[in-house]
């Protein structure tokens, strides 16, 4: 007995689904040799609600609030992608005023999503302070949402064809005040983390994905850009008037966890920059395009994707000419990015697995749908 | 508005390589797609990747059309970073026909095809790990098939495992 015990060096360890650093109900089965990870397997689906099936049983408008519940920390982005997809089928475009407001809210949402990521990621690594700062700034954004549409997280801010609500009195002022404040605050976060020795040692060289790995696994978003690929759908195939704004696509070369941290920090600065420009130039005019009360897109299909905070979020929508979608397929960035977890974890230490799950920035509501 | 024919350098090259294996090149709402014979799907994906820079498989999904003779449509969406171009490939297959896996061409197809299997019951030939991915292993139905109602999809499983009487 003793011999076999000493000979057997492999250990199977179960992490989650109830685990603080899996960011939701993700279960990862780890195969270990001492502290080294030999392989992983993800068990997902705990949060599966059958969103795509629900879509087939609702009208086009009725389904819109459901998409907010996938990536619930970036609900506005989900809603934008869905509205754009249905608008594509209908052949309508939101008026310029609606587009500008959409861009503002979506970019604020990107900041909110990245802030939540930063706080929890740092917490996982052992840095407790940033979480409170991140939550504090995120609260500002949520307050803007609350004033705009009454909801904070699952906002359902957009409608097919434009917006339901006009901006409130003082909307521009709130957004600009946030940008002023945030640009100073993000320097403070960087002061806490960017040059911190412990932070660097825990992240540098951990969970490396090269550009080729990313393409093989379909990994998009900040993870792809950290590997040196300058690709962002807002630039590559602009939507909602992103071509009008002046911003950069931050990239890094190594594709490790530290580079992904740097890319996301830069992205938040760029988002604030876009918000400033958009707030300064909200054109007057209507906020809804001419869309009937009953939405009946002609039979056909379209695929529309946007740059969500986590990567390429795509909607493949099929209409049979009725008031209900025939099929809605959601291409979720979290689900696809999570598949690369095994590749990143092999050869790493157990403690790195926590860092790697954090850097993947998944939301289980979107992975499982 | 109907789909219009799609013609470009790419379609000419593919036509030359695959001939009548590709049934149609079309464009709808400015989005280009091709319809291929099921057997040709993987060679086309390979050729798109190797010869035409379509190195990113965005998505694999399916649509169920129960009244058609070939009721399942499998949709592959590919993108090329170099060309900044996204196209779709569709194949139409009969019930029970097993398409070959794309996982040997693009690793990302692994989970995407598992999800197609999970939702539609389409098995992919040669797939390294053909299991359900989101639903429990013992689940009885393939939810996104049109014959399955959203209610009472697997009453037995729900009653047994969750103890909910209604089975919803």
What does this structure look like?
The complex is a heterodimer of chains A (369) and B (168). Chain A is of the alpha+beta class and 369 residues long. Chain A has a single domain, classed as Cytochrome-c3 Hydrogenase, chain B (Orthogonal Bundle), CATH 1.10.645. Helix content of chain A is 50%, strand content 14%. Chain A contains 16 helices and 8 strands. In chain A, the strands form 3 sheets. In chain A, strands 1-2-3 form a 3-stranded antiparallel sheet. Chain A has a 3-stranded antiparallel sheet with strand order 6-7-8. Chain A has a two-stranded antiparallel sheet with strand order 4-5. In chain A, strand 7 (311-319) and strand 8 form a beta hairpin. In chain A, helix 7 (171-193) packs antiparallel against helix 12. The mean pLDDT of chain A is 89. Chain B has helices at 9-18, 41-52, 109-120, 155-162, and strands at 4-5, 22-28, 31-36, 56-64, 72-80, 85-93. The longest helix of chain B has 12 residues, at 41-52. With 168 residues, chain B is of the alpha+beta class. In chain B, a hairpin with a 4-residue loop joins strand 5 and strand 6 (85-93). Chain B has 4 helices and 6 strands. Chain B folds into 2 domains: 4-134, NADH:ubiquinone oxidoreductase Nqo5 subunit (Beta Polymerase, domain 2); 136-168, no CATH class. Chain B has a 6-stranded mixed sheet with strand order 1-2-3-6-5-4. The mean pLDDT of chain B is 88. The chains are: A alpha+beta (369), B alpha+beta (168). Chain A binds chain B through residues 44-45, 48, 50, 52-54, 56-57, 88-89, 91, 215-218, 229, 231, 236-237, 298, 300-303, 305, 312, 314, 316, 318, 326-327, 329, 331, 335-336, 339, 368-369, and chain B through 1, 3, 28-29, 31, 55-59, 61, 63-64, 75, 77, 81, 84, 86, 88, 106-108, 110-112, 115, 119, 132-136, 143-144, 150.
């Amino acid at each position: 007995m003793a011999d076999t015990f000493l000979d057997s060096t492999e250990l199977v360890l179960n992490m989650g689904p109830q685990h603080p650093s899996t960011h939701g109900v993700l279960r990862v089965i780890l195969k270990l040799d001492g502290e080294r990870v030999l392989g992983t397997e993800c068990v997902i689906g705990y949060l599966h609600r059958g969103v795509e099936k629900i879509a087939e049983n609702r009208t086009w408008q009725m389904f819109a609030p459901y998409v907010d519940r996938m990536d619930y920390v970036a609900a506005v982005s989900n809603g934008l992608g869905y509205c754009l997809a249905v608008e594509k089928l209908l052949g309508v475009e939101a008026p310029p005023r609606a587009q500008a407001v959409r861009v503002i809210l979506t970019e604020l949402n990107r900041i909110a999503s990245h802030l939540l990521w930063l706080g929890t990621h740092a917490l996982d690594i052992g840095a407790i302070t940033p979480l409170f700062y991140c939550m504090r700034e995120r609260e500002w954004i949520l307050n803007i949402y609350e004033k705009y549409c009454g909801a904070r997280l699952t906002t359902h801010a957009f409608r097919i064809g434009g917006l339901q609500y006009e901006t409130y009195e003082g909307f521009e002022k709130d957004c600009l005040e946030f940008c002023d404040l945030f640009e100073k605050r993000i320097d403070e976060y960087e002061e806490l983390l960017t040059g911190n020795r412990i932070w660097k040692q825990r992240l540098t060289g951990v969970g490396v994905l090269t550009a080729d790995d990313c393409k093989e696994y379909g990994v998009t978003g900040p993870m792809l850009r950290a590997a040196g690929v300058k690709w962002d759908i807002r630039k590559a195939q602009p939507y909602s008037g992103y071509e009008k704004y002046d911003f950069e696509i931050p990239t890094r070369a190594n594709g490790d966890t530290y580079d992904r941290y740097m890319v996301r920090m830069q992205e938040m600065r760029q988002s604030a920059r876009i918000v400033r420009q958009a707030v300064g130039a909200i054109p007057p005019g209507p906020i809804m395009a001419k869309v009937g009360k009953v939405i009946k897109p002609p039979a056909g299909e379209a695929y529309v994707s946007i740059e969500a905070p986590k990567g390429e979020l795509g909607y493949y929508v099929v209409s049979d000419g009725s008031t209900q979608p025939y099929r809605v397929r959601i291409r979720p960035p979290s689900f696809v990015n999570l598949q690369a977890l095994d590749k990143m974890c092999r050869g790493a230490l157990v403690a790195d697995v926590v860092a790697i799950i954090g850097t993947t920035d998944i939301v289980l509501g979107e992975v499982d749908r | 508005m109907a789909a219009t024919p799609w013609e470009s350098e790419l379609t000419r090259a593919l036509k030359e390589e695959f001939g009548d294996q590709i049934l149609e090149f079309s464009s709808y709402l400015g989005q280009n797609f091709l319809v291929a014979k099921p057997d040709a799907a993987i060679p086309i994906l390979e050729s798109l990747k190797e010869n035409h820079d379509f190195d990113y498989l965005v998505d694999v999904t399916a649509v169920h059309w129960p009244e058609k003779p070939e009721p399942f449509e499998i949709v592959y969406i590919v993108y090329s970073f170099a060309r900044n171009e996204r196209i779709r490939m569709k194949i139409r297959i009969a019930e029970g026909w097993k398409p070959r896996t794309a996982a040997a061409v693009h690793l990302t197809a692994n989970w995407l095809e598992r999800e197609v299997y999970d939702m539609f019951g389409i098995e992919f030939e040669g797939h390294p790990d053909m299991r359900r991915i989101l639903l429990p292993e013992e689940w009885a139905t393939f939810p996104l098939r049109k014959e399955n109602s959203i209610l009472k999809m697997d009453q037995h499983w729900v009653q047994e495992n969750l103890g909910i009487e209604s089975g919803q």
